[in-house]
Sequence to fold (545 residues):
Amino acid sequence: MSSEKRKIARAAGVVSSLTLMSRITGLIRDAVVSYLFGAGIAAEAFFVAFRFPNLFRRLVGEGAMSVAFVPVFSDYLANRSREESERALRAVLGGAFVVLLVMSAGGAALAGIWVDVFAPGFAATPSLRDLAVELTRILFPYLTFIGLVAVLAGYLNACRHFVAPALSPALFNVVLIAAGLALYALLGMQVQALAYGVLIGGACQLALQLAVLRARGVALRPLGELWRPRHEAVRRALALLLPAALGMAIFQVNLMVGTMLASTLPLGSVSYLWYADRVFEFPLGLFVAALGTAALPSMSSQAARGDVAGMRDSLGFALSLMNFVAVPATVGLILLAEPITALLFQRGAFGAVETAMTAQALRAYALGLWPVAAVRLLAPAFYALGDARTPVYVALVAVVTNVVSGVMLMGPVSAGAVPQWLVDFAGRVSVADLDHGGLALATSIAAMVNAACLAALLARRLGAGPGGVAGSLLRSAAATLPMALAVYASARWWGADGGLAERAVALGASIALGIVVFGTAALLLGGREIEQARALVTERIRRSG
Fold:
């Protein structure tokens, strides 16, 4: 295994392990929300308000800002002195702080407009709209915290330090849960307690990155260098940032579009999509986002050296590992959507009806797992090559696809707070009445279009597609077939009506059986994914010894 492949695999393992902690704490967080507020007015308002900062968090934590900063900082660390690298960090950090502060203040001031645009259906229920506006004003300052975290994390990732950035989301979830519950219980707050918990969690995330940088001897002084908007690093990062924001975050933009359209559907639709997305993000963030984070510094370094063949090989390696996880995870989510939802959320204000509705959306989202995962790896390759325009054009096509598909699949829209043109358009193009499930399916369709276009254009740009990906996909699909049969047979023996312990044991048994069957089939089929995994395990055992 080459040096770069080994670095990618090791870093992916570290980030994936810490991301597992983040996803588990995130699910606990959402379980607390579902227990307290179910899918009622408070939950609907919070999820709409949290969409704005959460979208930004996904961008900076797993996408656009990392894509913009890591190549720039990697170049400085590889080709400049340490003093110049730290000077570039200070300049980017200072510029980001000013921009983020303006964004936070402006977003809070325009909270009413944000809610009216992104949740037009809320206007029909004034109490719901007012609560969403109040929560949006509280949450917008979180953008400043998470934006600064992204700059510092980008520098740490460029230094091949992945622990603190990967640990940051878990810290955020733990603090949000603790602070939110404390405010809820001690101060008599309702859903506002969760909003203030978000702010406290963001401050703790920033403190963690600063502490690690200080321990590594990275100087953020003199303070006069924090405001250098004409610095070369600032210009280079800005040149990548805006295109990367759209190119990397297209799935999140499509989720926002789904929220907009869901606000025109019956009460609870926004919440069903939110809970389903949280489950969907578990396998996506656990390994795929970790793999993208680990691969980006390697691809950036190879692109800086002009090693196109090496970059193509690294991308093919990452995509092959992604196939090995995304294909069985897709089938597993589809088959186990209802028991997973019941185990995580069905308690308190969240009942059997909410479980069924959320599972419907989860199955539709699961169809987009592989293309979303592919985009997370394909889009950064364009930025590493200095091409910031192509992902933007493809992203725009995907957004249009999502809007049109969503309106076609969600069914008729009731007249009222919704503009008449949307009512008329939906009536003309509607082909199915799937409600919120149709919106989730539209998001997956848009992801498929996005991935297909990026793959075709990148193959043309590199002179050939990444090697071994098609064979890896076929092997993963072949190994998934017996896994699907085993999981389906085991899942038929249990339902969502048992107690928490029974649900956990039954679901755990089905998942464990699926993993064993898939792993056995993959071993029999062979392929470089198995060989690479075996080599990594052997090396780790040898090093431990």
Remarks:
- The chain has a mean pLDDT of 78.
- Residues 38-246 form one domain.
- The CA atoms of residues 77 and 344 lie 44 Å apart.
- The longest helix spans residues 269-305.
